[in-house]
Amino acid sequence: MPTTLNKIAKQGDNGATMMPIIQGVGRAAIEIAAVLRGAVFRGALGGAGSENVQGEQQQMLDVLSDEIFLDEMRSTGFVCAVGSEEQEELLVIEEYSHADYLVLVDPLDGSSNLDVDGPVGTIFSIVKRKTANSERPHVSDTLQSGQSVIAAGYVLYGPSLMMVCSVGAGVDGYTFNPASARFELSHADIRIPETGGYYSVNESNKDKWLDGMGDNLDRMKIETGLGMRYVGAMVADMHRTLLKGGVFLYPADEKNTTGKLRLLYEAIPMGFVMEQAGGKAMSNGIAVMDIEPEALHQRVPVYLGSNTNVDSLLG
Ligand code: P6P
Prior knowledge:
Blueprint: H1 15-38, E1 47-51, E2 57-59, H2 60-76, E3 79-84, E4 91-92, E5 101-109, E6 120-128, E7 151-157, E8 161-166, E9 172-177, E10 182-187, E11 198-200, H3 213-224, E12 227-228, H4 234-244, E13 246-250, E14 261-262, H5 263-276, E15 280-283, E16 286-287, E17 299-300, E18 302-305, H6 307-314
Parallel strand pairs: 3-5, 11-12, 11-13
Antiparallel strand pairs: 1-2, 3-4, 5-6, 6-7, 7-8, 8-9, 9-10, 13-18, 14-17, 15-16, 15-18
The structure holds 6-O-phosphono-alpha-D-fructofuranose (P6P).
Residues 109-110, 112, 202, 232-234, 237, 260-261 line the site of 6-O-phosphono-alpha-D-fructofuranose (P6P).
């Protein structure tokens, strides 16, 4: 009998409360995957003609994925609000504004890969509200460090549909089985290899990096001899790093002086998974998970992967 997402209910102290929300993420993933597979026939590839709060051109599928994800979080009945890359303000789920949990999400990460049929992903993180259940959820409920994260993970829309997640008791990978139409455990207890793998970075920005990171990378390449792979979608680059080892990095540069990747719905969820798998996630000299967030769409530099490789990179 295959193991399904129901396994989560028996994991750690929070599995039972997290399972319905993560099952909701799974339902959203299945629907988003179906939309992606048929998008070309519906004229749904390409720009939505709008910008997100980041000033980035929204793809039509960014907007649709955000709507699908919000609907599935609403359907769980356990989520009071969602902080999304695609929405400037916190989205309160009115009929459940008394519920205990908030979800931070990048609904369709790496969407610039879509029109070349490249991999994309969904990244999520779950925290417990700080405001009383009788109050209206507030954006301050999202401003919690990674130490307060209860569960996090990502969905990878690739040759297969995978969800990798943790409720604080290790990391498991589930693959969608079309025969049974559900996610089934395929990668139990993922641990990042201590050595080997690849370094993964957009090296074309190297001359603009801040904090001497160009010299650090040159030194790490000599010390480790790692090859390079870069997909341009954090979920795909993170997933390869998690399974093969190595280091993924997005340093601050002259254009993105505080970094490009978002703390609450990219760096923290990936840092949670990476640390749960025995790896490391750093930013600006401290662990990603120790950064005290100041804003919903705050950006940070990110260095995550195998301990030895992250240590070699950061010196
Ligand atoms: P660049 C996608 O836009 C994203 O937010 C991450 O998924 C990815 O790691 C990064 O930006 C890619 O950025 O500048 O290399 O295209």
